[in-house]
Structures are given as C-alpha cells and as structure tokens.
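Supplementary Methods S3. Complex input for the 9D3-bound model.
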Amino acid sequence: MRFDVVTLFPEFVRQCAGFGVIGRAVERGLLQVEAWNPRDYAEGGYRRVDDSVCGGGPGMVMLIEPLRKALAAAQQAASDRAPVIYLSPQGQRLTQEKVKELAGLPRVILLCGRYEGIDERLIEHEVDEELSIGDYVLSGGDLAAAVVIDAIGRLQEGALGDTQSAAQDSFSGGLLDCPHYTRPVSHAFGEVPAVLLSGDHAAIDRWRRMQSLGRTWLRRPDLLENLTLGQDDQRLLEEFKREHKGRTHEQDH
Ligand code: 9D3
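Predicted complex, serialized as structure tokens:
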C-alpha cells in the first residue's frame, strides 16, 4: 500500500514511517510513504502557503494553489487515481472498522492542514473524505496522518510478526485486551495469576476471555453495548462480576 502525504512537515512524516512495525513494513516493501510539501509549490521569494481569514478573525488559512499543485504532483506520482483524505476536526471519527476498510485500498493521499485549516473550496473540489482521530484539539493534521498510517500500515499482510496478530487485536473482537504478565512469576508487586502457569490451555483461554469481558464491562461499557454476547461469554462475564464484588481495585470503579 502506498501513502502520499501532503504536509508542511515532510520530515516528521518520513521519520514516523521509519520506526518499529511501520519502519519494518517499509523496509520489506509492504508499505510506501511519500511526503509532498506544499511550500515546494508556493510562489514568490517568501513561498507563502497561507493568508489571513476572509471576513476577519484570528489565524491564517492555507492557500488553495500550493495545496492543489502538491496534490496534483502526489496523484501523478503513481498511475492509479488515489482517494484524497483530509485530516480535520470536522471529519468522521476514525474507528478500527474504518482502518480495516482503508487497509484494503492500494493507495491513499493524506492531506494535512495547519493554522485554522484550508480554504473550503479546495476541500469541495479535491477531497473525497474527511477524517478526525478523536475529540481533542491538535495543532495540525500531520500527527493525525501519522496515526492513520500506523493503524493501517500494521494491518498490511506480513507487517506483524507471527507472534503478534491483527486478529488478536483489542477492538478487533470489540473487546479490550486481557492483562499480560512476564517473568519473574513472583515479585514484590505481586504474583502472576496461577492459571497462567497451570499449562491448562483451555483454562487459560477461558480466563483471558473472562478478563477481556470483565475489563470491557468495567472500563468501556459503551463497547459492550454494541455487542451481543454468546451464552459462554455471558457466563464468563457473570463469573467475573461475582469475583469482582467485594474486591476493591483502585483503578476500577
Ligand atoms: C483553535 C483552533 N480551533 C478553533 C475552534 C479550530 C481548529 C483548527 C485546526 C482546531 C484544530 C485544528 C488542527 N487539527 C487538525 O488539523 C486535526 C485534528 C484535531 O485537531 N483533532 C482530531 N483529529 C484531527 S485530524 C486533524
């Protein structure tokens, strides 16, 4: 899959694509990330990419022309026409469902704004879709683009090792992850739960499923509301609730 990112901070985007799972996917040729700087397409000695807001008010708005030219260059860099996604607070919220959908595309162009945003006419003419990464205020779309590349990139076939798996992801099953432990089994901070040392794989699977259900119930009841639990899951969750009662857990309610 190929990402072309239109950004005033191309070095930031390139750096982000150089680390960890995404860096390895790029090295293996599973993923390509290219950055296009609208400043390279700006006119005059000052290479202006922004101007004051029409109608008055604070801040600046990104000019149409440098962005239009940078987008055209990004489109022409590959043979097929790519959908243009504008990262913006006004967009649809990014979800794992949306991530999976986008992961099936051969290519997308990510358009990043700075300042107050970009001229609405460019959005109307060039943007296919607007996406937000959540209800908080960032200073620009560049970090959001890096989030999108990370979430989509790790789903590319072969990007994750065999020990990790996209199928096991928290949210993929609509539930939060179970707790994880490693050595030492005994530590001043506590013991590893005995079931995990039992060698009984069916019991371990049941315990993990129960923890996932229980933690989702405690921490993200909104996720549980969107699921219909099977009979086994309902029993596991009831068992968790019984064990939870009478116990106090600082981070839980
Ligand atoms: C203080 C400026 N705000 C006035 C109400 C508007 C505003 C403009 C530009 C708020 C944020 C931004 C920059 N944000 C993004 O470009 C952005 C973003 C975000 O802020 N939150 C979540 N997802 C995204 S995607 C792009």
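Residues 10 and 154 are 21 Å apart (CA to CA). The chain has a mean pLDDT of 95.
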